[in-house]
Amino acid sequence: MPYTVAEIAKLLGAEILGDAALVLKRFAPADRAQPGDLTFAENESYLARAEQSAASAIIIDGPATSSSKTLIRVPNARVAFAKVLPLFFPEPAFVAGIHPTAIVPASARVDATAHIGPYCILGEKVRIGPRSVLQGLNHVGADCLLGEDVNLFPNVTLYPRTEVGNRVRIHSGTVVGSDGFGYVLDNGIHRKVPQIGNVIICDDVELGANVTVDRGALGPTIVGKGTKIDNLVQIAHNVTVGEHCIIVSQAGIAGSTKLGNYVILGGQVGLAGHLKIGNRVSVAAQSGVMNNIPDGEKWIWTPAQPDRQAKRQMIALQQLPELFRRVKALEKQLEGKEEPAASPAPARPE
User: Fold this and answer.
1) Which domains does the chain have, with CATH numbers?
2) What 8-state DSSP symbol labels residue 270?
3) Which of 115, 139, 171, 237 is labelled catalytic?
4) Cα(315)–Cα(312) distance, rounded to whole angstroms?
5) pLDDT for position 345
6) pLDDT at 342
7) Whether the Cβ atoms of residue 39 and residue 59 lie closer than 8 Å to each other
8) Cβ distance 65 to 71 under 8 Å?
9) What is the average pLDDT score of the chain?
10) Which of 12, 10, 16, 140 is nearest to 75 (CA)?
11) Does 237 participate in catalysis according to the annotation?
12) Which of 2, 34, 90, 224 has its Cβ near the most Cβ atoms within 10 Å?
């Protein structure tokens, strides 16, 4: 659907430099843009490419001007990009109703505006809120609660008693509520500890593809409001993830660890169990965290440490080969300076 520059500027609260009546038909990157397209530039390099492109208008966030393009000036070009893109590429619409192949027991309560796609299976007493979507091949266990505008992509599985808030998106292959990994050694065998808790996914959470969130052993495993979790992340039983956290692919969080709000875990970060990670903590990729981390700190490396401390150690390690070379050279010098052993004294005549 086409939009005028004025309409887009109104949405963004932006300043227009150029033709406000210009009609924009698509959004495209600068290197693929055609006449009638809108693009964006978040730095001078992007702007140079955008000005040389065929795009008709550019979203910018700096003081730049242009003699050939209409500019839409905003406080932050990347934020504006995220707001505008859905205008030109809206999410697919799903018709309300239940597909004939879906299995929905009489005890389930499905809002009339919800969409239950092909081959979905709902357990007893499931509740599905308004405008929520189960795209297809979804299994939702007994007593699960789904709020408003939830979107389950194909092949998502929710174990019984999982609670999902409003506007939650869960991508394909993700399993929520599977058994926590709990065993106790008993006479030479690993005896399973029953996992009788559940999982609570709060509002505005997004779980990527093939994420696993284990249910609690007794209480719940919780993913806080606004948190975004990348593909292939493991969250163990009784973990609490705070609000608005970012957890990048292949990270793993062991049981009963608690994350504060606005925590960032880089790719392949591992957190040991029963830790407390403070608010606004950042952990760099491939770090292994074995200790609690106070609010606001940045940790790196394995075992993870505060970034400045770890960087000093990294620099010292890089200097070790030169240090060894110098030590060997000093040892050789010392060997050359050793005094010869004293000759034995002549024997006295008897």
Assistant:
1) 3-88 (3.40.1390.10), 156-306 (2.160.10.10)
2) E
3) 237
4) 5
5) 64
6) 61
7) yes
8) yes
9) 95
10) 12
11) yes
12) 224
